[in-house]
Amino acid sequence: TIMEVPSRSGTPELSQATVEIGSRLDLRNARRIVIKAGTSVVTNPDGHFSLTRLSGIVEQISELIHQGFEVVLISSGAVGCGRQVLRKQAFLSGNFKQQLRTSEDRSTGYDSACASAGQLGLMSL
């Protein structure tokens, strides 16, 4: 929502305001809808993309756009998808002994690497 906010000089300035939607009726008055789809929404438990869920989201977004809404889709699924990519890469390049280890490095660096590896796949959908 864009609203005019008086500045110190008294001249109105345009400012972005965040409006909390309290009910479905309020949603009808919105121009822009932001949808966040996290890792658990865009991926299956095994880490692969859930094309069934994603296609449902895309259909709903398409309908909203046809109704005149501006829609922004935000996804945090890159980490989950990237984790699958890195596991596969480690499997293909590692030896048998390495594959028997079950613990993954849960450091911030590992999550960043997963996000980087998964981002391209997520954007290519």
UniProtKB/TrEMBL annotation:
It comes from the Eukaryota. InterPro entries: AceGlu_kinase-like_sf (IPR036393), Asp/Glu/Uridylate_kinase (IPR001048), Glu/AcGlu_kinase (IPR001057). GO terms for molecular function: ATP binding; glutamate-5-semialdehyde dehydrogenase activity; kinase activity. SUPFAM superfamilies: Carbamate kinase-like. Pfam families: AA_kinase (PF00696). Keywords: ATP-binding, Kinase, Nucleotide-binding, Transferase. PANTHER family: DELTA-1-PYRROLINE-5-CARBOXYLATE SYNTHASE (PTHR11063:SF8), GLUTAMATE SEMIALDEHYDE DEHYDROGENASE (PTHR11063). This is Aspartate/glutamate/uridylate kinase domain-containing protein. The lineage of its organism: Eukaryota, Sar, Stramenopiles, Ochrophyta, Dictyochophyceae. Residues 32-122 form the Aspartate/glutamate/uridylate kinase domain.
